[in-house]
UniProtKB/TrEMBL annotation:
<keyword id="KW-0067">ATP-binding</keyword>
<protein>
    <submittedName>
        <fullName>RecD-like DNA helicase (AAA domain)</fullName>
    </submittedName>
</protein>
<keyword id="KW-0547">Nucleotide-binding</keyword>
<dbReference type="InterPro" id="IPR027417">
    <property type="entry name" value="P-loop_NTPase"/>
</dbReference>
<feature type="domain" description="UvrD-like helicase C-terminal">
    <location>
        <begin position="842"/>
        <end position="887"/>
    </location>
</feature>
<dbReference type="Pfam" id="PF13538">
    <property type="entry name" value="UvrD_C_2"/>
</dbReference>
<keyword id="KW-0378">Hydrolase</keyword>
<dbReference type="InterPro" id="IPR027785">
    <property type="entry name" value="UvrD-like_helicase_C"/>
</dbReference>
<keyword id="KW-0347">Helicase</keyword>
<dbReference type="GO" id="GO:0004386">
    <property type="term" value="F:helicase activity"/>
</dbReference>
<dbReference type="Pfam" id="PF13604">
    <property type="entry name" value="AAA_30"/>
</dbReference>
Length: 921
């Protein structure tokens, strides 16, 4: 067949499937049918394009075309910048063919990912070559919320009238890291919703900026760009938006300098001209530094000549020469260098540089080609798809872009098992879930044999098998150790505890608010030295902790929790808790010292990972242990099932439950919480949308979201971008605040704005992460180029509190304090920095995850269709229990049904049965 006929046949198959979906209405099945056709379409279109570009006969057979032009996608990517996406598309198709199971869910996700590539391919074929393909691509179901159409169409109109995307030498530019790029499709046009942060080392992930462009940009390097303010009319209000223009790659000077330290401990400064030219070359040609060091000799020399023209001072070119030599020879350190060159992120680079020990001579790492790289980075160099760098876990999509994935099946196997543990909470992966991998025993042996033999930590990464169930040894070892320690504690109680407790209760009976707590205190340590306290949000777990603490008033006590709000909650509700005996989990885990106490309390146990719990049990020497939490709340970020499954292994006499809620007195709200909490697959909670008035149609009632109805009110959502993302909602809700606006970079603040303090702010020891506050005064200090803020915070400082320099206490009452501090208007992105300069964020709207531990009088939850896959039962339950009185959930009926239908409460029965059978715990 002629090559054009082959293209048209493949195209017809794809279009017929899309057309048939009007009847079938099954996007998963449609995606499964289309995916196998895409690789042929891309390869054959590439052949046709190369033939046309080279002026060769395009009216030839497919076989003759293959002989004429080998390695088609590689060839076409060299034509010009606008063709380069074809190679990325082809590479991605090859990867997914090998490493993804094509069930309906995976196929849908892949097709949504590839839709952008298909649209770009369609336009390129039509505009450059007059080749019409994918005529009905617009009929592929994207399932976007209808109310978003108007929003994005108005943004597209603004972008069409704003054509200034040229590169320019403008002084009015900011430097940013690209956090996320989301393509949005409108009538076969693509616009890009780009989420940015200031390009500093420790910028909070919550301090994000959303801007729009019709030009796709790279997300692996820092960029310099103008953010032009504009407005669109939505809901009869002028919504401010940013249009991003004059975009150029702008790797930070400190990133060049710190990368050079990998080769030379003396930190030489590269010349400004050299750095500017390298950035400009990357911008103009759409190459990354890994592409450049892998050029053929002629092209690499041309690049070098471009950079050092007119005999400028060079330094980084010499570093690239050394990288090229190591990487082309595939010497030790190659994979680390490639990844760092691909991302060039200052914090990540600094974390990999070998640290000098005081008692040793500073020598390079002899295992990694005598580079000044951490020894802890060696596993990543050996198996990058199954290992992490120091303090950094690379995205697999980035690894595919810069490191060869071939012959690494053993790494993907390990990664799959780890992903099942970390993402799904499943310790043991069944053999039938690994059907995509062939020769399992060979792959397992290969992976295990590549682990460092003399390193205990590395040996714990082994893949283990037990009766066709597979796990990673470290995860299994951690949970076994935790359960054994807790079980030992549960075997014997305290002598005379019953009499001791009854005497205390008799003296304090008027202080205890319900009989359940009395009964728990009576039994707490009669038969066990560990007590588990399970309870829903607002059932008085902290109050019970206060009673237990007062029971042991003369004993030394330590209180631990995962988050700062939980720590502050403990200090406010437990009389014996103060700054000297309350710690975050991270503080204990990172500390090199041991801790000792008589009574240890751990709050928010469901958020404590297994690996952290092992550290706590090793680092804290205690006599009695009280474990408090709710297994239905958002779980630990890392694998953390110990608190949930412990009740399957420990005796009932050490397990206690609180059920009476105190956070709200609203009976309807309480019933709704209980219904969601106890949800079973055949249950329905739809009726709550009628009689409880909690469910509202997003299309019909969306205007309500933008009107604040109560003083203590928050809007919760899962995403930061989009019309109903945190950024937009904060801007929209701030419009109603008529106070004057003050700017720091691209952020605006007004008196009366609600705010939350962020992690890693300069005053973190005083104003903890997630501390609620309200701006009560702003003064523009022009001479110092600073803004002075006075903020009322939900915190009472102790009389002897020593404040961080620059922060002062203005006043306080029984429940709140007012503090004052100044913030620099300018943000320096050239140099190394350690802390976030802007200590807080607007908080009219907050992400559901950030709201954990907070409570509000009124809560509005917004869930769009594109986010429905990410709303788990625990996330939904956490969101609805932030409310003390008023609750509204805005979603479409389809989204409501999808989420409720797919509520999967994690069940660890299989893991529990294997642990019991295998370990005899």
């Amino acid at each position: 067949m002629k090559i054009l006929e082959v293209i048209q046949d493949t195209n017809q198959t794809i279009c017929d499937n899309i057309e048939a979906n009007k009847i079938l209405n099954d996007r998963g099945f449609l995606s499964q049918n289309i995916l196998p056709q895409l690789r042929n379409l891309v390869e054959h279109c590439s052949m046709y394009m190369v033939l046309r570009q080279k002026g060769l006969d395009d009216n030839i057979t497919l076989e003759d075309a293959k002989k004429t032009i080998p390695s088609i996608p590689d060839k076409i990517s060299t034509i010009s910048k606008e063709f380069r996406f074809i190679k990325k598309f082809h590479d991605s198709l090859q990867i997914t063919k090998s490493h993804y199971t094509h069930d309906k869910n995976n196929s849908e996700r892949l097709m949504l990912k590839y839709y952008e590539y298909l649209l770009l391919l369609k336009k390129l074929c039509r505009d450059k070559f007059g080749l019409n393909i994918l005529g009905n691509l617009h009929k592929f179901p994207l399932y976007l919320d209808k109310n978003l159409d108007e929003y994005y169409e108005k943004i597209l109109s603004k972008l069409d009238n704003f054509t200034d995307f040229r590169l320019a030498n403008s002084n009015n530019k900011g430097r940013y890291y690209v956090w996320k790029i989301k393509p949005v499709f409108i009538k076969e046009e693509i616009i890009y919703e780009i989420t940015l942060t200031n390009a500093t080392d420790n910028v909070s992930k919550f301090s994000r900026i959303v801007a729009f462009s019709k030009t796709k940009i790279s997300d692996n390097y820092a960029i310099k760009a103008k953010l032009e303010k504009s407005k669109i009319l939505i809901k009869n209000k002028n919504m401010p938006i940013f249009i991003i223009s004059e975009i150029e790659t702008s790797i930070r000077p400190c990133e060049f300098d710190n990368f050079a330290r990998i080769f030379d401990k003396r930190q030489k400064k590269g010349s400004t001209t050299e750095i500017e030219r390298i950035n400009k070359y990357i911008t103009k040609n759409d190459y990354n530094l890994v592409d450049i060091i892998c050029f053929d000799d002629n092209k690499y020399n041309e690049f070098k000549q471009d950079i050092k023209a007119n005999n400028i001072q060079i330094h980084f070119l010499e570093i690239l020469d050394k990288c090229r030599q190591i990487c082309l020879n595939n010497a030790k350190g190659t994979n680390i260098l490639k990844y760092l060159l691909y991302r060039m992120n200052n914090k990540v680079i600094k974390d990999q540089i070998l640290k000098q020990k005081n008692d040793r001579e500073y020598k390079p790492n002899h295992i990694l080609s005598d580079l000044y790289l951490q020894y802890e980075s060696i596993p990543f160099d050996k198996m990058p798809f199954a290992s992490s760098l120091c303090g950094h876990n690379p995205k697999i999509s980035d690894l595919f872009e810069c490191i060869d994935y071939k012959n690494r099946e053993h790494e993907f196997l390990a990664k799959f098992i780890v992903g099942n543990i970390e993402n799904n909470g499943v310790l043991y992966t069944k053999e039938n879930e690994l059907s995509n991998f062939s020769n399992l025993p060979i792959l397992i042996d290969k992976f295990n044999n590549l682990l460092y033999k003399d390193g205990e930590k590395q040996q714990l990464r082994k893949i283990c098998e037990w009766k066709d169930n597979y796990c990673i040894k470290s995860y299994e070892t951690d949970i076994i150790n935790i359960l054994k320690i807790l079980k030992e504690l549960s075997k014997q109680g305290l002598d005379d505890y019953e009499e001791f407790a009854n005497n205390w209760i008799e003296d304090n009976i008027n202080k205890i608010d319900d009989e359940t707590k009395v009964e728990i205190i009576k039994k707490l340590f009669i038969k066990s030295k560990v007590a588990f306290v399970y309870g829903a949000a607002g059932t008085g777990k902290s109050t019970l902790a206060n009673h237990i603490s007062n029971l042991y008033n003369s004993k030394k006590q330590i209180f631990l929790a995962q988050t700062h709000p939980a720590i502050e909650n403990i200090k406010s509700k437990v009389q014996n808790a103060n700054s000297s005996n309350t710690y975050t989990i991270a503080k204990i885990v990172k500390s090199k010292q041991k801790f000792k106490c008589d009574l240890l309390f751990i709050d928010e146990c469901s958020t404590v990972s297994n690996v952290d719990m092992v550290q706590i049990l090793n680092k804290v020497d205690f006599e009695q242990l009280v474990l408090i939490g709710d297994t239905y709340q958002i779980e630990a970020i890392k694998y953390g099932v110990w608190f949930d499954i412990a009740r399957e292994f420990l005796p009932k006499h050490c397990q206690f439950k609180l059920e009476k809620p105190y956070r709200t007195q609203d009976d309807d709200l309480l019933r709704f919480w209980k219904c969601v909490r106890k949800f079973k697959q055949d249950d329905t909670i739809d009726e709550f949308g009628v009689w409880g008035k909690y469910f509202l149609n997003l299309d019909e009632k969306n205007d309500e979201i933008f009107h604040k109805q109560h003083d203590d009110e928050v809007v919760l959502c899962l995403n930061y971008d989009g019309l109903y993302g945190v950024n937009n909602l904060n801007k929209f809700l701030q419009i109603a605040n008529k106070n004057p606006s003050f700017e720091i970079g691209n952020f605006e603040f007004k008196v009366d704005d609600p705010i939350l303090f962020v992690d890693n702010n300069f005053f973190i020891s005083d104003l903890h992460n997630n501390l609620k506050g309200r701006i009560i005064n702003i003064v523009d200090q022009n001479e110092q180029n600073e803004l002075y803020f006075e903020i009322e915070v939900d915190k009472i400082f102790e009389e002897n509190h020593s404040f961080t320099a620059g922060l002062k206490l203005i006043s306080k009452n029984d429940t709140k304090s007012i503090v004052g501090f100044s913030v620099d208007k300018n943000i320096n992105t050239d140099n190394d920095d350690e802390q976030e300069k802007l200590p807080f964020m607007l908080a009219y709207a907050v992400s559901i995850h950030k709201s954990q531990g907070l409570e509000y009088e009124s809560v509005k939850i917004v869930i769009t269709r594109e986010m429905e896959e990410n709303i788990t039962h625990s996330i939904f339950y956490t969101a609805i229990t932030r409310s003390k009185k008023y609750l509204k959930i805005y979603w479409s009926p389809e989204t409501q049904r999808h989420i409720i239908k797919n509520f999967n409460i994690k069940n660890n029965r299989i893991d529990v049965s294997i642990l019991k059978a295998k370990e005899q715990i």
